[in-house]
Amino acid sequence: MKKDKNYINSIRTIKEKCIGCTHCLRICPTEAIRVRNRKMELYDLKCIDCGECFKVCPTGSIYSFYDNIEIIKNFDYKILIISNTLPSVNFGMLSYEDVIKRLFSLGFNEIWEEGIGNEAYLIALQKILKETKDTIKPIIPTSCPAIVRLLQVNYPLLINNLTVINLPLDILGNYIKEKRKNIKSFGLFYLSTYPCKVTALKNPLGLKSSPFNGVFSLSDIYKRLMIEKIEGSGEFFKSGKVGVSSGRRGGEEDFLEEFKVISIDGIWNINKFFDEMEEEKIPYFDYIDAKACLLGCVGGVFLKNQNFLLNFYNQREEEKRRKSLMSDVVEKDIDEFLKDENLLLTEKINPRPQYLLSENMDIAAKIFQEVNTIYDLLPKLDCGSCGAPSCRSFAEDVVLNKIKLTECKFIEEKNL
What we know:
Elements: E1 11-13, H1 23-27, E2 33-36, E3 39-42, H2 52-56, E4 62-64, E5 77-82, H3 96-104, E6 110-113, H4 115-131, H5 145-154, H6 168-179, E7 186-192, H7 195-202, E8 214-217, H8 218-227, E9 235-237, H9 241-245, H10 251-255, E10 261-265, H11 267-278, E11 287-291, H12 308-321, H13 328-337, H14 340-343, H15 361-377, H16 391-399
Parallel strand pairs: 5-6, 5-7, 6-9, 7-8, 10-11
Antiparallel strand pairs: 1-4, 2-3
Helix pairs in contact: 4-6, 4-13, 15-16
């Protein structure tokens, strides 16, 4: 496995805690995990930071990297963008308004809902669907970073279906940076409910750099919000119904009702759909509202101990409470949001070099044949007892000298 030093994973492991249970091995959608000597190994270039392994780990040996909130002390003026699914989170007896007040008490001057960026994203997408005839369809969203990375790893032929529109979070971040550029010592931060957003801000795709100065995990701040009863105040920018709905399954589809849109949630459901899409078994669609988490972003990985069905219900109820379809900010300043420098990706998104068997294509082709030869010897049961998730991945590991063929329980030494 050739390591890309420029790539940053937010998913990390504590090997001392790992018991080799293989739960993570079986759940990973990109076969990025191996279990060797009863310890998990992560193949970084295959990992898309979807966090499925994080959810099923029974020992806490899998965690996600994020920034310590103390870094905000390095800035005089602090702005926080909160996940568009924060209204769905169960904070016990605390109302959503109470949670916002407690977030202000941490030292933020302004708080913005991420959904404002989603509103601008959907308006731009709607315009493309109406006016651009040469767009490759169905369009696949950039709004879920795990989906973008899934294409890089498993479905490179579908990368051209990605929209040219930036991640909604970055659209909003760029807008705020421009509007607050005259403020000295100004820091922009994000409160995330999923590791893929941490990765997207630390290692952005389609952009040279991220407008953010830091990203925090809700799971890290949750206890603090529940225990500390201090309340603060500041300027709070809320999204409309569209911004709130974008955090759940079907939210984008509701807004784009005039087009042929399909909503898919859950990374395994998306894997299956993309498999059939590559095989040209899928009928025509204009757009795929794809979200890696079950039920959409309300099923975020950093909400590990939440009831996702209840979160989905809470999100719908919050939509009903919003009086306007769009936020006041988007209604008044949509032209600023839709400027190319705020809206569009600036760099091409390429397939990820998961593993290079050889820099020489002829040699690589020969080694690939070796993989097929070894694969033909295997039982094709994908039992995982060798520490690889499938017989195909085991064959690749053998060719890469990461494991011996005899580690397969179904192959006897005398037959080699």
